Structures are given as C-alpha cells and as structure tokens.
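REQUEST ID: PR-0412
SUBMITTED BY: lab tech R.K.
PRIORITY: routine
TASK: structure prediction, single protein chain
INPUT:
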Amino acid sequence: VGLRLWRNCCAAMHDLGVSNTTPPDGSPRRASLPILLGVAVLATISVAGLIFVSCQGDDEPSSASTTTSSAHSAHGKDDTDSGGTAYGSHGMAPTVVTAEQVGELGPGPQLGERFVGTFGLNVCGRFLDPPTAGSSPDTGMSTDGAGRFSVTPPDAAHAGANATIGELLDLIGVDLSTGSVTFPESTTPAQFPIGTATAAIAGATFTSESTCGDAPAKVQLWVYDAHAVATGEEVRAVEVDPQLTPIAEDGMAFVVAVTPESSLPTLPPSAIAG
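STATUS: complete
OUTPUT:
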C-alpha cells in the first residue's frame, strides 16, 4: 500500500510539473522541495502503518478460548445432574461456624408457623437420591420424597431453636454427629464408584478417617440461609455437633456432606429445581 501511494504521489508530481527540478534558466526550483519532502513523509508514514497493522494481527487472541471459570457467577445454575458438583457451586469455601452461630440467623419456627426448606445428602461430590416421604406428628417434621421438608412445631418443645436438622435427619434415618454420618439401609444408590473402588453407601458409616479416592474427607453440614440459596454468598459449614443446628429461618437449605477438604459447597438439587 505504501509503495502504491509513493508511485501515485510521484505521478501526481509529474502532472504538476514538479518532476523536473531544474527550470529553463538553470536555477534550482526551490518551491518544489517542500512538496517532495511532504510526499516522502506521507509515504513513510503509510509504510510504517502497514507494518504496524501486520504485526498487530499476529497477536490477536484465538476466538476459541480454553479458559473456563472455576465457579458459577452469582450461584449460576447449569444443567449438571445430581451426580456432579458443578450444579449450584458458588466457588468459595464455606465459613465454618457452630450450631449456635447458625441460630443467630433467626428465631426458628414458632407455634402456628410453618417453615419450608430443602436438603440433600452428598458423598464425595455425588448427591444421593432423596429419601422417601415421611412425617412425624411428634416433631412436626415432614418430607415430600423429593428433597423438600417442612416443619410445623406441634408444641413449644419443638419450636424455635428446638426445631433442628437432627430432628429432620431422625425422620429420614440418617445418624449425624461430630465427624460421623451413617446412612440408612434404604439409601439409593446402595453403592457407586469412588476413585478406583466401589464404595458401599447404604448402611455405611463415614467418618473423618474416610477418603474420597485418595483425598482425605470430612463430615460437614452445609448451611444455606435464604440469602445464600438465592446468591451463593456466605455459605456456612458446621462440623461440631451438626445435628444440633437449628432451622433458624424459612427457606433454608442443608446438605449433609462427606467431602474432600478442597471441595466447594453445592446446593441440593431440590433447591435448584425450586
């Protein structure tokens, strides 16, 4: 392009009569020198611009990026099924708290009130099937068989902070305590691969000595208040006496998890489904 411009400028000079730099009287034609210099500068700038654009083109990024986000934005929801950990993961480690600190989120269900929420059981990144539906008139707890629960306290002994996740787990046959969880014989799937081996799940007890493949595991209760369910922010984990964690407010979600230390909390599928 620069060479073509140079040639065009030279042709224009010839048409203007500036190609002959010596007039008939033999004296130098000084007026043509600024024109020549201007043409030379323009041609040089054009060539330099062409080189710059060409070099820039070599540095353009590929249109097919190989980098993906490690977490979903604002607790984004995708189509990963209940066997995966991407669904509902928010990309931040939970804050480990006590059951009493969870109780500070709210007063819990009072007499005449009905709280609803969701729950899940997760072993090494895989959600187990929701337990069958059940209810307890003594505690006011009930489940729908799809990972949702409700609690309507029948008396003061089961209201407020006394409405705990432990009462819900008793209803579905899960025994949770510090560093240990035992699933009922009715759990499905009864077994599935973990790492290179097939692990029994139904009737099995997992402790802080268990592993997920080669990774050491821990037993936690992931706690989502209503805000965390919606945004993925401020997810909590209870490790000491998790069964005493109160159902402090309406719309909460809970996950009993046997999880590697590097794992990120994941909403139960029932909370994603709405």
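NOTES: The first helix runs from residue 2 to 15.
REVIEWED BY: pending
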